[in-house]
Amino acid sequence: MAANGFKSPAPVLPGLGLHSFHNDSPPFAGAATSEQGEPDHISLDPSDQNRFASSSHDDSHLKPELHYQSQHAHLIAPFPNAPINTAHSNQATPTQAQSILNPIPQRMPTFSSDEHLSSSRSRRLVSGYLFGNPPSPVGTKDIPADMAKAVQALQAAKAPAAAAGDAARDSKTTSPRPSPNSEDEGRYPLPTPPIQDRDSPPLSAPYKSYSSPNPNNALALEQSTQALGAVSLNDGPETGAKLNDGGAVMAGSARITGTDTGYDALEGRNDGEADLDLSAPQAEGGGSGAYLRGEAAYEFPRHRLRKTMRDESKIPLVIVACGSFSPPTYLHLRMFEMAKDEIVESQTYEIMAGYYSPVSSYYKKAGLAPANHRVRMCELAVEHTSTWLMVDPWEAGQSEYQRTAVVLDHFDDLLNGGEDGEGGVIMSDGKKRRYKIMLLAGGDLIESFGEPGVWSEPDLHIILGRFGCLIVERAGSDVWAFLLSHDILYHHRRNVIVIKQLIYNDISSTKVRLFVRRGMSIKYLLPNSVIQYIYDNKLYRGKIGAP
Ligand SMILES: Nc1ncnc2c1ncn2[C@@H]1O[C@H](COP(=O)(O)OP(=O)(O)OP(=O)(O)O)[C@@H](O)[C@H]1O
Ligand SMILES: NC(=O)c1ccc[n+]([C@@H]2O[C@H](COP(=O)(O)O)[C@@H](O)[C@H]2O)c1
């Protein structure tokens, strides 16, 4: 079998030997192509894992562990109580197993190779970080006129008194943006309506309380917000109810309710997101709730997935974060943005989307709220604040725990598979190119790779070799030392990108849960929409460790 599961063995990149990293770079910076490939016979199928263990492949340094894994693969589970699903879920088993065992299954489209692209690109993925990166082009173009109008109406209603005084300043700060000529296009955002002056009240503050000289402003605001389905405005029960009607069209996303949920304006939980982004594309249909209740079929979220590339000389990349997200915090959101900066800087990949995949309730971890709540909280966290992040409820909705390798394989199927899948990215010449999928994880999660009985070695080869890892440094874990010491990580080091946290953020879900339990403020640690959801659903109030 080919080293990377689908393609021919990855070539050794010229100049990328063990000691050939850029002088400024720590080890392991590299394009996402493993120089050594993987051992043969890596598979998600347990019988194939056995074959892998007994294979004659000359990976003698790995063999003792592999032998151990072959005998104990069926026991490998992250926690003693977590049932391990040795193959796929009901829906996925036959096709996904096939996709691993057969390098190019019939239903898969053929793809042009990405390997050659890597060789011409900067490999300073880690320390080559330049301050002042141009912002990512994602989501900066084509703002519909009605949205632009809505934002302007919002502005007018929000700070009417300040409007005149601020006009001169606004025009100064917004006008000198570079014009979108061909060179700049995609590097700078096209002029967008100013969302909000930083000194203004929050977007969702009750607008009636700011004396608006023109009541039509407020009316226009409400109408346009309803048209957009935005739900961040709230003026107590009456307005909240109206706005929620609008929000309901978006993935069942109504998020703010009335006073019966303990809303207290002084506590400010209903404040809107400071970073509300009205241009964020929204999902249509019933959302994940119906699927998780077993009332609707699973649908892969695609509303923010880019299907074509801006720069076809790059490798199309989808980033997937697996985890508990109980609850999701600003750290979990920042992880993606940190990864984005690193990727933009590397110039090797083009980000096509980012996904959260909350683990199911079968993952026996203290403090894990039920899966439907965690999925919804993740959706709320990204719904109006991001233009490129989505939440995939598939893993959360499975009736058994799904290993991370299986989850990534699910993404591969949906993004690159030919039937229900996207079939890859459509290039301008009509050909398809595979989406590369990488796991985004914190340093602590990566260090758990070394804990006996938590990850199977074949799975690690799949995760690190066939996919790849973006590792966000975490305070308290020495990622570099671990990378050096871990055989499989080292083996696949060119498929691993370590992301330095330039502003350390160590917001912890565990502490957030404790704060809730102790009645302490969690504001500014996670999006207000998520805070509101936690209170509305009375999450994390039980004894420590309970949801
Ligand atoms: N402070 C942090 N720095 C870097 N990565 C982090 C940090 N906190 C969480 N992560 C990463 O976020 C992902 C999802 O985390 P997850 O919700 O499973 O755990 P957690 O945030 O540590 O929560 P808990 O406190 O409940 O254990 C994991 O990959 C984890 O490593
Ligand atoms: N064997 C495995 O696939 C394996 C082991 C441990 C954790 N995980 C995943 O890591 C993520 C985060 O786990 P923790 O919250 O325990 O750090 C979860 O999505 C979990 O499923 C996977």
Automatic annotation (TrEMBL):
Pathway: Cofactor biosynthesis; NAD(+) biosynthesis; NAD(+) from nicotinamide D-ribonucleotide: step 1/1; Cofactor biosynthesis; NAD(+) biosynthesis; deamido-NAD(+) from nicotinate D-ribonucleotide: step 1/1
Keyword NAD: yes
GO molecular function: ATP binding; nicotinamide-nucleotide adenylyltransferase activity; nicotinate-nucleotide adenylyltransferase activity
InterPro entries: Cyt_trans-like (IPR004821), Euk_NMN_adenylyltrnsfrase (IPR051182), NadD/NMNAT (IPR005248), NMNAT_euk (IPR045094), Rossmann-like_a/b/a_fold (IPR014729)
Gene Ontology CC entries for this record: nucleus
Record has Magnesium as a keyword: no
Listed SUPFAM superfamilies: Nucleotidylyl transferase (SSF52374)
Cited Pfam families: CTP_transf_like
One GO BP: NAD+ biosynthetic process
Region (Disordered): 1-62, 160-217, 269-288
Record's compositionally biased regions (Polar residues): 46-55
Cytidyltransferase-like domain: residues covered: 320-513
Superkingdom of this protein's organism: Eukaryota
Database matches in CDD domains: NMNAT_Eukarya
Compartments where found: Nucleus
Main location: nucleus
Family of the protein in this entry: Belongs to the eukaryotic NMN adenylyltransferase family.
Name of the protein this chain belongs to: Nicotinate (Nicotinamide) nucleotide adenylyltransferase
Provenance organism: Kwoniella heveanensis BCC8398
